Amino acid sequence: MTPRPARRAAVDIVCLVGVLAFVLVPLLEVYGGLTALPALAGGLLLGTSVAVLGAVRRWSAITVVAAVVVVYVVAGGALAAPGTTLAGVVPTPTTVVDLARGAGSTWKQLLTLQPPVGSEGTLLVAAYLLALVGSCLAVSVALRARTGAAAASAALVPVGVAIATIVLGTRRPIVDPVLTGVVLVVVLLPWAAWRAGVLRARRVVATGVLMGVAVGAGVLGAPVVAGGTERLVVRDEMVPPFDPRDYPSPLSAFRKLVKDDASLFTVSGLPDGARVRLATMDRYDGVVWNVAGDGSAQASGEFRRVGSEIDTTVRGERARVEFTVQQLDGVWLPTVGQATAFDIADPDAAGDLRYNDATGGAVLTGGVHEGLEYGIDVVAPRVPAATEVGSAPAADIAQPPLVGQPDAAAVTAADVARDAGSPVQISEALETWLAEEGYFSHGVDVSGTESLSGHGADRITALLGGDLMVGDGEQYAAAMALMVREMGLPARVVLGFVPGADGEDGPADGPVEVTGKDVQAWVEVAFQGYGWLPFDPTPPPEQTPQEEDQEKPSEPNPQVVQPPPPPPGAVTPPDEDTEQPQTDDPDETTDGSALFWRIARVAGIVAIPVLVLALPLLVVVALKARRRRRRRRSPDPVARVAGGWDEVLDTARDLRRPAGALATRNESARELAASFADAPGGALVATRVGALARSADHAVFSAGEPSGAHATAYWADVEQTVAAMTRSVGWRRRVRARVSTASLKNHRNRRPKGTS
Predict the structure, then answer these.
(1) Which of 206, 298, 424, 515 has the lowest tally of Cβ within 10 angstroms?
(2) CA distances (Å), 533 to each of 381, 428, 536, in order?
(3) Backbone phi, then psi, for 433, in 5-degree steps?
(4) Where is the composition biased (Pro residues) (predicted)?
(5) What is the pLDDT of residues 352-378, one digit of tens each?
(6) Is 138 helix (H, G, I), strand (E, B) or coil?
């Protein structure tokens, strides 16, 4: 290379690769820490090297593609799939197979895993491919293009990579999207103009003003337009494959677990005071509490695949908890606190794992089975005392609305908590009243009082409005959650296990066997600055109703206005624990419509950067169409004919074959004929432009005025001539001509020779 082309190539590489590196930075957060840094840096370096070598050695496009494939396989093992290589460097047959599969499957995994996704398997292939292919393509186009305009098109590659990074990114990327857009405009726009040869000193001010407007619109206008709307992220809009609405309410199995009293699982390493969580429910439909399935950010039903590490902001005691499943079945996986990593011995079960970081719950879509062994690295949060929470307000958390809740819950809650002030005092008052005024029973007839299973509206009405409150954790937790929600506080029901809850010793240092006697349900209420705190409204097991309690209660219940009887057709709780009330199936039409609008919304957001980049081109096309329409619809027939000839000249200018600016129409026609002589159909163009020039001169200089029909016929000839001129050039020049501004520039307004 001569010095000048070498300097130009260096500028191309610095601008393009620098911007590519900048737009790829948000992927570091997706993978976690600096996990993806070697793949990104190595991909950029290798892709740029292949592009430069191909340009210097003048390789064909096929040779460059083959070189990229070889580099992808040889270096991909060390950079993207080190677990399949020898000594972390030398690729093996497994490396080749995994890289080939990862090129197509990694993208879906990234969108369905919850960041940080880590580097397990071939997850790094996506970052490696974006860096390798993006840098090679951008630099190859810039260095090998024959014209400056073609070289400038390399600026589209970083824009495309930026869009891909946005799609794979998180809700709050480490690099603000506005800053990314500003860098793309400030760096790529001047470089593309310089590379295309259209950057002139007299245009510096205009270009600066345009860039200022674009940057100002992005920095100041975007927040005004978007308002408080949260940023749309594709991974948040994807419907997870696990839908909890396909399964019965976990809380309805409470009484069955108690009566079977089987050995469910063993747990070791359980921190002191920690509880084992099975399922968290925040949706009530008048029949059961269940896990929400609407996929919202705070819902208990959004279960996602997770990587090797799970990011958490929860603080507390860190521990390693080991589980061995015995007779527990279903899809709900026991967990503790907030998980930071899962280690499941069975690879098939590991692929079925879905986790919800909003609740700390987990499921195995293939089902929990006997003999399953797994470990969890957890953070067990400290539970602060009520005095420490003090007057902290309730957390602002969106929850599914209550449906079919009994009136007794609202009436009783208002009466019990009438003297409470802060949210935590309201929660404590409800917890204390239920635990002290109620009686415990798992369903055995005690002194003629029967404790039915279930927690539908009828059962909660009977519990709160009857002469005697009798039930177990299922009813008391369900009732308290409804009462807390009626008081305007966020609440949810948790089904889990508390080893030692039956009065026996709690967890020991070694493995602890968890049976049906340890099952428990409690309520969690969220407070700002403290998160979700547990409350236990269930009376102690020894607090059972006696005959004298029914005749003369020692502490009568507060006076509660009795709600009206339930309407006919209300759902009756099941007598048998195995019977699960089923709610109505979701409307498939509604789900399909919601999915359609989600897809449309994602497509609209992704299309915004494309529309912004295409906006100047659309403006040019619109201005030309408006000019053409004004010329053709002029009320003066002479002006219409003259405008038709001007349309021919402007088409020639946009096709880069202009006629002389000061020539007469006949002279211009001869120049156009000579200009198109070497093009296909040039003879036809020469004949048509000559006839149009003579007809225009006759209309302008003749004594009489041409008729409207003559002007219309003249324009029909103009359209045929313009079409012939356009067909005579290649498709690339036709596309450039449509968006060219050559015919829109202010030419000196001089009449052709011989005009008057």
Answers:
(1) 206
(2) 10, 11, 10
(3) -65, -45
(4) 561-571
(5) 898 988 899 999 988 999 999 999 999
(6) helix
pLDDT digits over 711-730, tens only? 899 999 999 888 888 888 88
Report residue 741's pLDDT band, with 50, 70 and 90 as the boundaries.
confident
Q: How confident is the model at residue 617 (pLDDT cuts 50, 70, 90)?
A: confident
Q: Is the pLDDT of residue 513 over 90?
A: yes
Among 277, 267, 269, 280, residue whose Cα is nearest residue 318 = 269
Q: Please tell me whether residues 227 and 282 are part of one structural domain.
A: no
Local structure of 464: helix, strand or coil: helix
316-346 tens-digit pLDDT: 999 999 999 999 999 999 999 999 999 998 8
Picking from 667, 713, 672, the residue whose alpha carbon sits closest to that of residue 689 is: 672
Q: Which residue has the higher pLDDT, 202 or 460?
A: 460
Q: What is the pLDDT of residues 411-442, one digit of tens each?
A: 999 999 999 989 999 999 999 999 999 999 98
Residue 304 CA to its chain's centroid (Å): 13
Per-residue DSSP letter, 754: T
- Separation between Cα atoms, residue 244 and residue 143, nearest integer Å: 54
Question: What is the Cα–Cα distance from 258 to 237, expressed in whole angstroms?
Answer: 39
Query: Rounded to an integer, what distance in angstroms lies between the CA atom of residue 730 and that of residue 147?
Result: 15
Q: Which long-range contacts (CB under 8 A, 24 or more apart) does 256-259 make?
A: 256/577, 256/578, 257/516, 257/519, 258/442, 258/472, 258/516, 258/517, 258/519, 259/442, 259/443, 259/516, 259/577
- Residue 87 within any structural domain of the chain: yes
Sign of CA dihedral 325, 329, 334, 340: positive
Query: Quick one: 282 and 225 in the same domain?
Result: no
Q: Are residues 350 and 484 in the same domain?
A: no
Taking Cα atoms as reference points, which of 380, 382, 354 lies closest to residue 366? 354
- Say if residue 278's pLDDT is above 90: yes
Distance between CA 324 and CA 576 in Å, rounded?
29
What is the rounded CA–CA span in Å between residue 674 and residue 682?
A: 8
Are 196 and 282 contained in the same domain?
no
Does residue 529 have a pLDDT over 50? yes
The answer on 655 and 733 residing in a single domain is yes
Count up the domains in the chain and report the number. 4
CB atoms within 10 A of CB 628: 20
CB 493 within 8 A of CB 279: no
Give yes or no: residues 424 and 474 share one domain.
yes
pLDDT tier for residue 751 given thresholds of 50, 70 and 90: very low
Q: In whole angstroms, what is the distance from residue 323 CA to residue 271 CA? A: 13
Tens of pLDDT, residue by residue over 63-117, are 999 999 999 999 999 999 888 888 888 889 999 999 999 998 888 888 878 788 8
Q: Are residues 230 and 363 in the same domain?
A: no
Question: What is the rounded (10 degree) CA torsion for 38, 41, 45, 51?
Answer: 110
What token pair was written down for 75? Answer: 């270096």
Domain that holds residue 273: 254-384
Are 38 and 124 contained in the same domain? Answer: yes
DSSP string, 54-100: HHHHT--HHHHHHHHHHHHHHHHHHHH-GGGSBTTTB--HHHHHHHH
Domain end, chosen from 333, 351, 384, is at 384
Q: Do residues 486 and 460 touch, judged by C-beta distance below 8 A?
A: no
Q: Evaluate whether residue 136 is within a structural domain.
A: yes
CA-CA distance, 122 to 80, in Å (whole number)?
6
Sign of the CA dihedral with 357 first, then 358, 359, and 365 last: negative
Who's near 744: CB < 8 A, 6+ residues apart?
Answer: 620, 623, 624, 627
Domain boundary among 329, 363, 384: 384
Lookup result for tokens 């976990």:
250
Tens of pLDDT, residues 15-37: 999 999 999 999 998 888 888 99
| 597 in any annotated domain | no
